[in-house]
Design goal:
Blueprint (H helix, E strand, L loop, with lengths): L7 H16 L6 H7 L4 H7 L5 H4 L2 H13 L7 H17 L2 H12 L2 H24 L4 H28 L6 H18 L3
């Protein structure tokens, strides 16, 4: 029986994403997701708190990734370099499975509720990075500015990466695209000194 097969969580996540893409997030039920992989709703709820969580379940691990990356950056690293390294690692996480990232983005983009939750999650990343910078002894305002600037650059790079994937253009690597956007942000800020 399906529920005894390994990786129920992954199978449920894949099935949910497929159903969300086919019939929409709001019209998809937990019962349909569970049935599509041969498990019960109870099994679904052992792995996910609700059907939204299927789209956000990796956020805790990613939050830990960026926080640890900032904390473990070389002592000599500036706040922006520490944030940049953390967000490059985060970008590499998405780059591992671009198709899944783009399918997920399409579902999230189609729902105001999910877009709002996505923004809340992104804000949590900024707060976590700023906190990790403060733990390194960075002044609070500087820590917040570096984290927010990095998050803004990441958000723009991610949106461009999504658009490139949908356009059929030659695909780009998200970590490199993030560095390009960050370099442009640095150039824009440098221009304010003139």
């Amino acid at each position: 029986m399906g529920r005894w097969e390994p990786n129920a969580r992954g199978r449920l996540a894949d099935a949910a994403l497929k159903l969300y893409a086919e019939q929409g997030f709001d019209r998809t039920t937990v019962a349909e997701i569970a049935a599509s992989v041969g498990v019960t709703e109870r099994t679904f709820f052992r792995h996910f708190t609700d059907k939204r969580e299927v789209l956000f379940y990796g956020a805790e691990a990613a939050l830990e990734l960026v926080t640890r990356a900032v904390a473990e950056a070389p002592e000599s690293a500036s706040p922006m370099v520490a944030v940049s390294g953390a967000l490059q690692a985060f970008a590499a996480f998405f780059q591992e499975d671009p198709r899944r990232a783009r399918d997920r983005d399409a579902v999230v983009s189609a729902s105001a509720e999910l877009r709002e939750r996505e923004l809340v999650k992104l804000d949590a990343f900024s707060l976590a990075m700023a906190g990790a910078l403060r733990e390194r002894g960075v002044e609070p305002r500087t820590a917040t500015l570096a984290a927010e600037a990095g998050a803004a650059a990441f958000k723009i790079a991610y949106a461009e990466w999504m658009a490139i994937g949908r356009s059929g253009e030659k695909d780009r690597e998200l970590p490199g695209l993030f560095l390009e956007v960050l370099a442009e942000l640095t150039s824009v800020l440098d221009a304010t000194r003139d």
